[in-house]
Write a structure and sequence with these properties.
Strand content: under 5%
CATH topology: Na+/H+ antiporter like fold
Oligomer: single chain
Shape: globular
Structural class: mainly alpha
Radius of gyration: 18 Å
Number of helices: 14
Distance between the termini: 8 Å
Helix content: over 70%
CATH architecture: Up-down Bundle
Number of domains: 1
């Protein structure tokens, strides 16, 4: 058990080191607001879409999707319930509207690919990758079809009809990236080696850039801004208890055990997606950045305790 615990601790340490790197870049003046804006746009319009494509074509096959169809169904149900539950928490505890969209985003969705895949591979080995990617596909659609609409609505960003807003989200680069990846897998299309290598190289810089940008935003806002307010405390409850708890209940009802359920519960209890900071910055300005940064940083810090304990509990 000790080995399992320290293995999980080692995996999450990398995330804090990358966050600290972004903070130090701000301290040394090597990153500024212009650089942050450029990185945010680069991530949203180019790197994240290629990251989505790479994650899907690398870890999923047509046979895998068919074989693990039950996990797609479970993830679909659990994530729908998680989004609904996050919305209800906001209503019950009267979370301000300008935090509601980001709360739903960070509460219902986990950092499945940037952090989850790496940590699950450290804990379970490469055999867990298909289960993570099945979760990731549904998590991606949850983020880009539900969360983006919720965030834009909560900040009254460019008021539009629901139809126009949905069309913009469906045509957004990340959703297009997920769709292309799924089409390539379902049609069993294998890209030329140079194309796969190009996509892989672009994909590899997403995680460090997104996390370092979070570190810079913490520097920019000041450490004093990272308060544990009511919304952040409820987010911790949602992210580490309620969201993975829904998966736990479903697996118990179905009597499912083993690598699949264990991997899914671990990845469901990952920190809030680092893309929350990008969304908060793009649609909510400084106010959105602050709440998103609080959520990402506090859930990442909590991961140091939660992931090792959860790994021991489900071992």
């Amino acid at each position: 058990m000790k080995e399992v615990f320290w293995q999980a601790v080692s995996s999450v340490s990398v995330i804090l080191l990358l966050t600290a790197t972004g903070y130090l870049l701000g301290v040394k003046g090597l990153m500024d607001k212009k650089a942050k804006t450029f990185i945010s746009r680069l991530l949203m319009t180019l790197l994240v879409p290629f990251n989505c494509i790479n994650g899907i074509i690398t870890n999923l096959t047509r046979d895998t999707i068919s074989q693990y169809g039950i996990y797609l169904l479970i993830s679909l149900i659990a994530m729908a319930l998680s989004n609904l539950l996050a919305f209800l928490v906001c209503k019950i505890f009267r979370i301000p509207k300008n935090k509601t969209g980001l709360f739903i985003h960070m509460g219902a969705n986990s950092n499945a690919i940037f952090i989850g895949l790496a940590i699950c591979r450290e804990i379970f080995g490469d055999a867990c990758a298909p289960f993570v990617m099945v979760f990731y596909v549904l998590n991606s659609f949850s983020i880009w079809l539900i969360s983006v609409i919720a965030v834009r609505w909560s900040f009254d960003y460019e008021r539009e009809s629901f139809g126009k807003l949905l069309l913009k989200v469906l045509l957004s680069p990340p959703v297009i990236g997920v769709s292309i990846g799924l089409v390539l897998v379902l049609l069993d299309v294998h890209l030329p080696s140079f194309a796969s290598s190009f996509i892989r190289h672009l994909s590899s810089v997403v995680t460090p850039l997104a996390i370092m940008m979070t570190g810079f935003i913490i520097y920019e806002l000041g450490l004093k801004s990272l308060v544990m307010d009511k919304a952040t405390a409820l987010l911790m409850l949602m992210r580490f208890v309620l969201a993975p708890g829904i998966f736990f209940i479903i697996f118990k009802i179905l009597g499912m055990e083993g690598l699949g359920p264990q991997t899914t519960m671990i990845v469901a209890a990952m920190p809030a997606p680092t893309m929350a900071v990008v969304l908060g910055s793009q649609y909510g300005g400084e106010e959105g950045e602050r709440f998103a940064s609080q959520g990402v940083v506090w859930t990442t810090l909590a991961m140091f305790v939660v992931t090792p304990l959860l790994r021991v509990l489900i071992a």
